[in-house]
Specification:
The complex is a heterodimer of chains A (260) and B (419). With 260 residues, chain A is of the alpha/beta class. Chain A has twelve helices and five strands. The mean pLDDT of chain A is 94. Classes of the chains: A alpha/beta (260), B alpha+beta (419).
Chain lengths: 260, 419
C-alpha cells in the first residue's frame, strides 16, 4: 500500500478510566520515535498540549461511558474518526467501574459523597461498542504495548492485526511457565481468559486475574469445580469474575451463577 | 511479500546474511556419529555418581549445551545443567488427572521422577522462532535469519516415551517430503543420554503404547539408576567413545539383572492403560458421532494445554508482521487445534465448536496419525492427562467410547482412515 503524502492523524480520547492504557502508548519507549515519525499525534492531552483539528484517521478510545455527557462526547469522537479502536478493559467491557451495574449507583453516591445531589451519573458503565460502531477492540487492563503497536501498525499499513483470541494457557506454556492450577499454587483464570499479556501473572507464580477478558469459546462452568476444590466459596468465585471485565457477558454470567 | 516503505523498492536484491559455513559444519557433525557405526557398543558399564558428574563435564568440554531435569516453580522442568547437584536429587513427583505435586524422596535418587510439563520439543522445535527479518537496505531488501541454533545440544535424562516422541517428530520434520531446516539444524549432532524409568507416574501409559519404559533405540547412552550408581549402555559409537573417557567398570551380571528388574517393575506400575492400542484407528474413526464427544466437550476448556505439553504435537502458525520502520518479521509460533483460528479458512473456522476440536485432536493423535505417519501420535507419556486443568483423561475417553461403540464400528467393514 503506497503511503499517503500526508501522515495519518492519531487522536487519543479518554472516558471513565485510569489513563493506564494511554500510558502504554507512552511506554513504547524504543518504538515511540517510529510512532511519532509515522503519524501526526493530533490529539493526545496526556502527551502534548498541541491540538490539531479533526477529522482523525485513527482514534484510540480509552474508558467506559458512565455519564450522559460522555455518551454525547463519544458520538462526536466517532463522527470525527475514520477508524475507532477501543483500548483496554474499560472501553471494551466497561471496566472495574462496571461493578456499579450489579448494584444501585445512587446508593454508592449517597455513601461516598457529602452532597450526592451534585453527582450526575448513569446507572451503568458500558463499553464504547454499546454506543457507537467500533473498528477494533483491544483487550487488557492495561493493554499490552506490543499489541497496541501491532494494532496501530496494522491499521496504518492496511493489514489485519495479529491479535489472537485464544486463551492465556497457550502463551503460558510457550513461555515455559509451570501451570499454577495443576501444581496447586494458585487459582487461575488463564484457561478462560484471552491471551495478550504473555501470561505475566502465572509466570510469577500468581493466578491469572482475567485482565484480558473472556477468550473465544470460554467454558468457565467446567473450570468452576476445579477452582472450588481449592477451597474457593461461591462468593470467592463470584469475586474472581467480578473484576476488570465483570460486565463482559461470559464473565457476568459466571459471576451471577455463583451469587446468592 | 508486501513492502511498505517510503518508495517502492527496486526489484529486491535479496542478500542472505545467514551464516552458511555454520550450516555446512552442522551437516558434517551429523554425519560423524554414523561414520564408525560398525564398531560394536561395549557391554554395559557401571558409572558411579561421580562418574555422572564426569559425564556432564565431558559433554560441556565437547561444546554441548547440556539440558536436563531441574526443580523449578514446583515442577521438574528441563533447563541448562552443569553438575549433578543441578538435577532433582532426592525429588519425585505425584501425578494424576489435572494434578502435579513435587515430593521429597527418602533417598537421593537423581532420576527418581517421571516426565514433567516440558517436552524436549521445546528445544528441537522452539515455541517461538523468528524465521527471518526483512529490512530496507542500501541495495534493496536485506533478509537476515537468526533461526538456526548456534550450539549443539545434549539432552540428559530422556525417557523412553520421549525417545519415541523425538522419533515421531523426526518423521514429521525430517523424513517427509519437506525437511524442516530449523528442526534439522537443532537435531543434527544432538547427543542423547536416555534414562530407563525407575518408577511409573500416575498418568503414565507408555507400556500400552509400546513406547517404554525401556529405552530401546535412539540414544547415545542409556542409564539405569541403581542403588549405588548407574548402569550405562552405549547406543552409538559416539556414546561408546564418550563412555570410554569416563571413570567406569564393567557391570556385573547381578547389576544387569537388577537393572532389568527395575524396568520390569516400572512396566507393571503404569498409572493408566489403553488396552489394544492397535485397534484405536478403527474404533475412533468408526465413532465420530459418539455421544461421548458431546460429554467431553462439556468439560473441555479448549485451552490447548494438552497440545502444548504433548511431545509430538507439532503444529505452528506462521505470521508476517510489518513494523513502523518498514521491516517485516516472519515468525513461527506453536499453534493448537484447540484454537478457533487454527481451522480458519475463507469465511470462517471449520471447527467452531470445542466438540469438533477435541475430536480432531484425539482422533488425529490416536487414529489418523497412523495413516499419515505410520505410527501412533501418542507415546503414553501422560502429560495431556496431568496438565489438563480439568483433568480430562485420554485413556478414560478411549475406554468410554470402547464401552459403548457405535454399531458401525463393530461391522466387518472397518472405516477408512482419511488420507
Amino acid at each position: 500500500m503506497p503511503r499517503a503524502a500526508r501522515k495519518p492523524k492519531l487522536a487519543v480520547w479518554k472516558f471513565a478510566s485510569c489513563d493506564g492504557c494511554q500510558l502504554s502508548l507512552l511506554d513504547c519507549e524504543d518504538e515511540l520515535l517510529a510512532v511519532a515519525g509515522n503519524i501526526d499525534i493530533a490529539y493526545f492531552p496526556e502527551a502534548t498540549r498541541t491540538v490539531l483539528r479533526g477529522p482523525y484517521d485513527v482514534s484510540l478510545v480509552e474508558g467506559s461511558i458512565t455519564t450522559a455527557h460522555d455518551a454525547h462526547r463519544l458520538h462526536q469522537v466517532r463522527r470525527q474518526s475514520r477508524r475507532l479502536i477501543t483500548i483496554g478493559a474499560c472501553a471494551t467491557a466497561g471496566g472495574i467501574q462496571a461493578l456499579r451495574n450489579f448494584h444501585d449507583v445512587e446508593e454508592f453516591t449517597r455513601q461516598v459523597y457529602a452532597h450526592p445531589d451534585y453527582i450526575s451519573t448513569l446507572k451503568t458503565a458500558t463499553p464504547i461498542s454499546a454506543h457507537v460502531p467500533v473498528d477494533f477492540e483491544l483487550r487488557g487492563c492495561p493493554v499490552d504495548k506490543g499489541q497496541l503497536l501491532e494494532v496501530l501498525t496494522a491499521f496504518l499499513h492496511g493489514r489485519p492485526a495479529h491479535v489472537p483470541t485464544h486463551g492465556v494457557c497457550m502463551e503460558c506454556k510457550q513461555r515455559g511457565a509451570v501451570c499454577v492450577l495443576v501444581t496447586g499454587a494458585a487459582a487461575c483464570l488463564g484457561p478462560v481468559t484471552q491471551a495478550g499479556c504473555g501470561a505475566l501473572c502465572p509466570a510469577y507464580g500468581r493466578g491469572c486475574f482475567g485482565c484480558f477478558g473472556p477468550k473465544e469459546t470460554p467454558n468457565p462452568v467446567s473450570l468452576a469445580p476445579r477452582l472450588a476444590a481449592r477451597g474457593l466459596t461461591p462468593r470467592d468465585l463470584q469475586r474472581l469474575y467480578r473484576s476488570f471485565n465483570a460486565a463482559s457477558e461470559p464473565f457476568r454470567q459466571e459471576g451471577d451463577r455463583h451469587g446468592g | 511479500m508486501q513492502h511498505v516503505g517510503a518508495e517502492p523498492p527496486d526489484p529486491p536484491a535479496l542478500r542472505h546474511t545467514a551464516d552458511r559455513s555454520r550450516r555446512i559444519a552442522l551437516d558434517q557433525c551429523a554425519a560423524a556419529p554414523n561414520a564408525d557405526a560398525s564398531r560394536m557398543p561395549p557391554a554395559p558399564a557401571l558409572l558411579t555418581r561421580d562418574g555422572l558428574d564426569a559425564l556432564l563435564a565431558a559433554l560441556h568440554a565437547d561444546g554441548f549445551r547440556v539440558l536436563g531435569p531441574t526443580v523449578q516453580d514446583g515442577a521438574i522442568i528441563y533447563d541448562d545443567v552443569v553438575r549433578v547437584a543441578d538435577l532433582p536429587v532426592g525429588w519425585t513427583d505425584r501425578q494424576d488427572g489435572g494434578s502435579y505435586r513435587l515430593e521429597r524422596r527418602d533417598d537421593t535418587a537423581v532420576f527418581g521422577h517421571t516426565v514433567g510439563p516440558y517436552a524436549w520439543k521445546r528445544f528441537l522445535h522452539p515455541p517461538l522462532l523468528r524465521l527471518w527479518r526483512a529490512e530496507p537496505g542500501a541495495d534493496g531488501v536485506e533478509i537476515a535469519t537468526d533461526a538456526h541454533a548456534a550450539q549443539p545440544m545434549a539432552f540428559l535424562g530422556v525417557r523412553a516415551c520421549e525417545l519415541q516422541a523425538i522419533a515421531i517428530q523426526d518423521k514429521v520434520f525430517l523424513h517427509g517430503p519437506f525437511v524442516d531446516p530449523h528442526y534439522k539444524a537443532r537435531r543434527q549432532g544432538l547427543f542423547i543420554v536416555a534414562v530407563n524409568c525407575g518408577q511409573a507416574g500416575g498418568t503414565c501409559f507408555c507400556a500400552s503404547m509400546q513406547a517404554g519404559p525401556k529405552a530401546e533405540a535412539g540414544f547415545d547412552l542409556a542409564l539405569t539408576e541403581l542403588a549405588d550408581g548407574f548402569l550405562v549402555e552405549a547406543g552409538t559409537a559416539r556414546g561408546a567413545v564418550l563412555l570410554d573417557r569416563l571413570p567406569h567398570r564393567p557391570a556385573s551380571e547381578e547389576e544387569q539383572q537388577q537393572a532389568a528388574a527395575i524396568v520390569a517393575a516400572t512396566a507393571a506400575q503404569m498409572g493408566r492403560h489403553i488396552p489394544d492400542a492397535a485397534a484405536l484407528p478403527a474404533l475412533l474413526l468408526g465413532n465420530l458421532d459418539h455421544p461421548r464427544w458431546d460429554a467431553v466437550a462439556q468439560r473441555c476448556l479448549s485451552c490447548g494445554n494438552c497440545t502444548q505439553v504433548c511431545p509430538t504435537c507439532f503444529c505452528t502458525n506462521v505470521t508476517d508482521t510489518t513494523d513502523l520502520t518498514g521491516a517485516t518479521d516472519r515468525t513461527r509460533r506453536w499453534d493448537s487445534c484447540f484454537a478457533v483460528d487454527f481451522s480458519y479458512i475463507h469465511g470462517g473456522a471449520v471447527r467452531p465448536a470445542p466438540r469438533s476440536r477435541y475430536r480432531q485432536w484425539m482422533t488425529h493423535k490416536l487414529a489418523s496419525w497412523v495413516a499419515q505417519f505410520g505410527t501412533s501420535g501418542c507415546t503414553g507419556c501422560g502429560r495431556c492427562v496431568t496438565w489438563c486443568p480439568v483433568g480430562i483423561d485420554i485413556t478414560e475417553e478411549v475406554a468410554a467410547i470402547r464401552a459403548a461403540p457405535a454399531p458401525a464400528a463393530a461391522a466387518p467393514a472397518a472405516p477408512q482412515s482419511p488420507p
